[in-house]
Amino acid sequence: MWQYGEHIRHFTARFNVYVPDLVFFGDSYTCSQERTESFQAACVVKLMHAHRVGKASIVGISYGGFVGYNMAVQCPQMVEKLVLCCTGICLEEKDLDNGLFNVSNVEEASSILLPQTPQKLKELMRYSFVKPATAIPSFFLTDFINPTLIIWGEQDQIFPLELGYRLKRHIGKHGQLVIIKKAGHAVNLEQPKEFIKHLKSFLCEFWSSPPSPTWKDHFHFHID
Fold it and tell me: Model pTM?
């Protein structure tokens, strides 16, 4: 939730905003042994059904982008628009061997992206920010036609910008790529004003008049 604290207020006038904790984030949990992004996506879809949400715009940052992408693949009719921020969906195993990353293998990347110790959290912060804050596998690509905004920090050290260009090529005419300068993996926190500007432009471009009661049919999900 803290990642979106500054952003939510810019959208509540036009959207019903949901910020769900993914499974094993916050107080969300399951008895299932599943740990895949596909399972996480299915859980969010069930959440949408529980709240009687038929269609939503999905915003996912980093790992949340993997989940959002899976939602668009599994249930394209439920995803009106998709925003993927610094999400290494087009990562291939050979990229690790070719030195594209500062980590040597998938296991090391996972330990940084999902830190279990204070030291790993500090390491995640170091990779995520151009100026680090003092506080505090190969993927199967499937064609889909959801309008998609790709946002990337120019100096992302976790998922380098090359993956942003690669993702744009994969999505093709249905996607647009925005590169934010002086930002790393935590692009939404380092450059919040520019991040919000592009997000609002993309999500609200169909709406030229003030909100009306019919807007309650549209929901906006953020995924951490």
Answer: 0.73
